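Summary of Year 1 activities. Much of the first year was spent building the evaluation harness for sequence design. The harness presents a backbone, in tokenized form, and records the residue chosen at every position. We chose the following record to illustrate the format because it has been used consistently in internal testing since the harness was completed.
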């Protein structure tokens, strides 16, 4: 009997290894009990609430990001539209051949030429004005190249009644323009190598850069599926488990 129920058998049951296993067992039972009573759930929620950004703050951050993206897109879209209109207005002047405003060198239609140049100047000024709302470097650089060219040509433009202001915008004096040497006007506005042709090329670059930047802005705000990128560190991912 002593061999079966002796002290040595009891001691083996409560050896260090077995005691460790029993401790782990009761620990698991305790954890399971916590889960059943909801204490574990409450603890996790409290933890994620502590480490996560405030939902209101996160929503505001998301809204701010969208607003900034929308503002940038509006500015870029406006510049793109104005620059494309400038290209179209320049084309009416740069076109050569029979359809050109300068085709009949013996009798230029000064009214038609003045109207086309005035439209060109209006579109140019609108593009320059729209550039003021754009912060993207590549778009601004394209715009700066255009205004630099206008500055370079300011002396020649002044001889046909066109003034370049300190803001790089142009203004035209109708009387001086119509009384100017039309061959000089033609050299400035007719053909792809003219001043108007150069401005048209710059405007095309502006429109291209604006379009490219719009794609980048949208790509940084939205994922491939079109949904706004979000911050998943809020812990809300785990809420469904509890």
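For this record, the design step produced the sequence shown next.
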């Amino acid at each position: 009997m002593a061999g079966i129920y002796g002290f040595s058998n009891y001691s083996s049951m409560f050896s260090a290894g077995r005691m460790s296993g029993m401790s782990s067992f009761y620990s698991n039972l305790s954890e399971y009990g916590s889960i059943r009573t909801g204490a574990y759930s409450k603890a996790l929620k409290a933890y994620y609430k502590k480490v996560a950004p405030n939902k209101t703050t996160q929503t505001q951050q998301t809204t701010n990001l969208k607003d900034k993206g929308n503002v940038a897109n509006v500015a870029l879209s406006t510049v793109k539209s104005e620059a494309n209109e400038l290209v179209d207005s320049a084309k009416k002047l740069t076109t050569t051949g029979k359809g050109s405003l300068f085709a009949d060198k013996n009798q230029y239609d000064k009214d038609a030429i003045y109207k086309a140049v005035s439209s060109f100047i209006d579109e140019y000024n609108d593009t320059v004005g729209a550039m003021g709302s754009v912060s993207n470097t590549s778009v601004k650089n394209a715009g700066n190249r255009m205004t630099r060219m206008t500055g370079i040509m300011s002396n020649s433009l002044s001889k046909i009644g066109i003034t370049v202001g300190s803001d790089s915008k142009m203004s035209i004096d109708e009387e001086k323009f119509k009384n100017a040497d039309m061959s000089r006007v033609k050299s400035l506005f007719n053909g792809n190598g003219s001043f108007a042709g150069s401005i048209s090329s710059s405007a095309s670059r502006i429109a291209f850069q604006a379009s490219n930047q719009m794609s980048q802005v949208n790509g940084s705000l939205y994922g491939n599926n079109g949904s706004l990128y979000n911050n998943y560190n809020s812990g809300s991912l785990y809420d469904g488990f509890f």
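The first helix runs from residue 2 to 5. Quantitative recovery figures across the full test set are reported in Table 2.
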